Amino acid sequence: MSLSAAEEVTVVTGASAGIGRAIAEALLAQGRAVVNLDHVAPDWSHPQLQSYQADLTQEGPTRERAAEIAAKHRVTALVNNAGATRPGTIDTATSAQLDDVVGLHLRAVMLLTQAFLPSLRACGHGRIVNMASRAALGKVDRVVYSATKAGLIGMTRTLAMELGQGGITVNAIAPGPIATELFRRSNPEGAPQTQRILDSIVVGRMGTPEDVARAALFFLSPDNGFVTGQVLYVCGGTTLGVAPV
Questions:
Q1: Which of 6-44 are b and which e, b meaning 16 or more Cβ less than 10 Å from the residue's Cβ?
Q2: Distance between CA atoms of residues 41 and 49, nearest Å
Q3: For the segment 88-106, what is each residue's pLDDT rounded down to a tens digit?
Q4: Which of the following is catalytic: 38, 81, 145, 180?
C-alpha cells in the first residue's frame, strides 16, 4: 500500500506485532493512516498501513529509513514503541546487550524524533508517545532494560519542555505485565517469577496490548494538547506503593 504524500500519518515503530500492532490497528480503526517501522515485515495488512523495515538497534539503517519516511510522508505523530528486554542481572549483563537496548530505546528515539521534527512542527499539533516500562522503577534481572527505560522517561520530560512551544506534546506510557510474546519469552509460564508477577496485579488479570493502545490514543489525539511530559502506568495497579505520587 502506498499512502499519499499529503496525508497525515502516524509512525509506529514495532507495529508488526504485539503492543505496536494494537496501537496501529486502533489508529486505523479511527480512519488514520499509519506507517509501521519494524525489523520484520508484518503478517497483516490494511489499506491505510504502509510498512518499512530497519534494524533500529543500528544507527546507519535507522538514519536511512527515517530520512526515507520523512521524505515520503507527512508525519504528524510518532509512537516509539519498538523494544527488547535483554534479561540479565549485573553479574550476567554484557556490553553488547547494553549497546543494543541503548540503540533501540534511546538512540533510535532521538534519531526518529529529529527526522520528523519539521513535519511535527509544521502541523501545529504534533504528538510523540514513548513506550517506557514499569521496570524503570526497578526490576530484578532487567539491569540494562530498566536503565534505558528510565532514561527514556527522562528524555520524554526534556523533549516535552523543548517542543511544547511548537504545539508538540511528548508523553510516555509505562506498561506493566502485558500478555505479549515478548512477555512470555522473558517470563515463562509456571516459573516462580512469573507467578509473583501475576500475584502482584491488583485488578486480577494480565494486561492486553489493547489496554496500552487505548492509552496511546488519548495521548495521540489532536484534542489533547494540554497534557505533556507525563508518564502513564498501564499496569493493573502493580505500581501502587512504588511509583511516586
A1: eebbbbbbbbbbbbbbbbbbbbbeeebbbbbbbbeebee
A2: 12
A3: 999 999 999 999 999 999 9
A4: 145
Rounded CA separation 245/241 (Å): 9
Query: What span, in angstroms and rounded, lies between the C-alpha atoms of 71 and 16?
Result: 22
- Each residue of 171-181: pLDDT tens digit? 999 999 998 88
Is 145 considered catalytic here? yes
Return the H-helix or E-strand segment holding 38: strand 33-38
Superfamily of domain 8-180+208-234: NAD(P)-binding Rossmann-like Domain (3.40.50.720)
The whole-model pTM stands at 0.95
Measure the CA–CA gap between 187 and 205, rounded to whole angstroms: 15
Q: What are 206's three cell numbers?
A: 494480565
Q: Which residue in the block uniquely carries the three cell numbers 549485573? A: 90
Q: Contact at 8 Å (CB) between 173 and 234?
A: yes
CA 66, CA 17: separation in Å to the nearest integer?
A: 20
Q: Which residue ranges make up each domain of the chain? A: 8-180+208-234
